[in-house]
Specification:
single chain; 288 residues; alpha+beta; 8 helices
């Protein structure tokens, strides 16, 4: 059978065009995205290393200051001893007492400065760690994680205590069954139906609802208002007016950050209580 060279050439041209299109609109954007992500990660690591080196430099500077203070104290004591040879025993004791007092004041002032700067570094580090955690979780969040968080929210609904169950039913009735569901991505139709069924089961178990149904009254219908809220990072939040139940990464990170900050504040207070109450060394620290 004769070869149709026109068809062969046309197929070759079509193939080359297809290869060019794939490279131009598929492979190259993917490679560019990967390069941009690697650059971003490298930038974050570089910033963290820079901050670590800065903290180490500060620590070295304050150690050097402590060393200089010790040397200065030794010098003052030696001068006091030299003067004591030319004065009475009372003058020697007075000079030594003054030297020790000055050394203690300067040491306390420097310790206060070190503590304050350490507190600032810790506070900044805590905030940056939690900000980075939120960013990483936000980038890693996917539909599978969203589905797991949804299942967790349902399990919390089913495990409500009797008091919480009663409060939820009152909130549902007060809002005429209108619920607001905030999530990082819209819920699927099966998830909406599952959530409605769970809420309707909870409402059905309430004594007032059973009495309404037995009296032939209309049962309350659950209506979901879906709201996309990227600030949740990952998870969902269900609310009926003032009643709220949420299971989100942002809420958990905020609670953990609050606990860490309270713990750090308590440690600051303990350190402050151990420092001597000296108005002069506090003024020195403030002036510096």
């Amino acid at each position: 059978m004769p070869i149709d060279w026109f068809t062969v050439i046309a197929q070759i041209i079509n193939f080359l065009i297809l290869v060019w299109l794939l490279k131009r609109f598929l492979y190259q954007p993917i490679l560019d995205g990967i390069d941009a992500r690697e650059h971003k990660i490298a930038s974050v690591l570089s910033n963290a290393e820079t901050q670590k080196k800065h903290a180490e430099n500060l620590e070295a500077q304050y150690k050097e200051k402590l060393t200089n203070i010790d040397a200065e104290r030794s010098t003052i004591i030696e001068l006091a001893k030299a003067e004591a040879h030319k004065a009475t025993l009372a003058a020697l004791q007075d000079a030594k007492a003054q030297a020790d007092a000055l050394s203690i004041k300067r040491t306390n002032a420097l310790n206060t400065e070190i503590q304050m700067l350490q507190n600032e570094v810790i506070d900044k580090s805590v905030k940056e760690v939690f900000a980075l955690s939120r960013k990483v979780i936000s980038e890693l969040a996917d539909q599978q994680l969203q589905d797991k968080m949804f299942d967790k929210l349902l399990s919390h609904l089913k495990a409500l205590s009797e008091v919480q169950h009663h409060e939820l039913c009152l909130a549902i009735k007060k809002n005429q069954g209108h619920a607001t569901v905030r999530s990082i991505a819209p819920l699927s139709q099966p998830q909406c139906e599952h959530l409605k069924a769970c809420l309707e089961d909870i409402l059905t178990d309430h004594p007032s609802q059973r009495a309404t149904e037995q009296a032939g009254g209309d049962s309350l219908t659950i209506t979901l208002n879906l709201v996309v809220d990227p600030q949740l990072i990952a998870g969902l939040a269900l609310s009926f007016g003032g009643w709220k139940l949420s299971w989100s990464a942002n809420e958990m990170l905020s609670a953990l950050q609050h606990e860490v900050e309270l713990s750090i504040d308590a440690q600051y207070e303990d350190n402050g209580a151990n420092m001597p109450a000296d108005n002069e060394h506090h003024s020195l620290s403030a002036n510096r």
